[in-house]
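#lab-general

N.A. 3:47 PM
ok so I finally got the sequence cleaned up, no stray characters, all 149 residues accounted for. can someone with queue access submit it? mine expired

B.Y. 3:52 PM
send it over

N.A. 3:53 PM
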Amino acid sequence: MSILTIKCTDCGVEFELSDEEQEFFNTHTGIDGKQMQLPKRCRACRAARKSNPYAGRIITTRPSNGRRVVTNSHTPLVNRKPFAEVLLETVKTSFDKVLAARPDCAPTMVLDTVLDIIKVTTQNRQRLNSENVYQLAIERLEEERALNS
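B.Y. 4:20 PM
back already:
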């Protein structure tokens, strides 16, 4: 093998792939078990893409007028909390509110109800909101109280 010159798809700069790098890509498999492909981006663009996975992605939205808006996102989503953090805050807030509103319910029952509602909400790809989870949990606990009475 000889040194291979590839043009970066992001910045257009030509970069070289040494024999060792070529052999690495040809002999290793990716996460899905398929053979790895040669890189399309130079090291700098690969590093930039890893640090900001949303850069350069197309975002499509439909405003209230029904027209489709397509934007090219080159800026990172700033001040966005990780989903796990939002999830934990929602569980804590909803649990505390429901327990305060329904002190007659067992804490484990309240927690199970809150977690079940959050599970259904995220499976249906609905926005996670502690106020909605609180209202749904109160309604479900009222239904369970009515069934048990």
